[in-house]
Amino acid sequence: xxxxxxxxxxxxxxxxxxxxxxxxxxxxxxxxxxxxxxxxxxxxxxxxxxxxxxxxxxxxxxxxxxxxxxxxxxxxxxxxxxxxxxxxxxxxxxxxxxxxxxxxxxxxxxxxxxxxxxxxxxxxxxxxxxxxxxxxxxxxxxxxxxxxxxxxxxxxxxxxxxxxxxxxxxxxxxxxxxxxxxxxxxxxxxxxxxxxxxxxxxxxxxxxxxxxxxxxxxxxxxxxxxx
Length: 227
Known about the structure:
This protein has helices at about 1-25, 35-45, 50-80, 85-90, 95-105, 110-115, 120-130, 135-160, 165-210, 210-215, 220-225.
């Protein structure tokens, strides 16, 4: 993995600070895989250059601070930043529109799922802040819960696979594929639930009120009966 090979010597030399700063950069939407960053942090712990439990804490701090900055920027300066030339290169209008669409459909739960989606994480958190309808504590609860699951998993995976690189990379690839599959299934289930709840019911109600056949089938006595 090219990213791993590039990060390993930097993390080995600068330790926790390098991991924290790299996770901040990931939070800003730079296309650096966050999972590989966390796995690499675990690897240097497995090699004896850091403590694995401290690395988990640093990983949690890095992802939450980075995500929180994007949420805060969206809340305070959303429209101005979204229209800036520099920001539009990192967060393309297509990705931002896609994030807004998913946020409108799935509400606060999309912030939980976004932690596992590298391409949508930054635009979702920025859009959540920009709407100004999501309290900070709700964002922190959803993102924090997801981070507590993902960060230790990647760091400890790197820690236990530090001396078995081929096995480690194979597990990382399989984990990414399985995760994307689970998310796709969950998104499909959520879409079906949303469609049934907001699309089918109104159509049924409208048909009851507007169907001329149902009105015509009523007896005159039934329609004129005051009871």
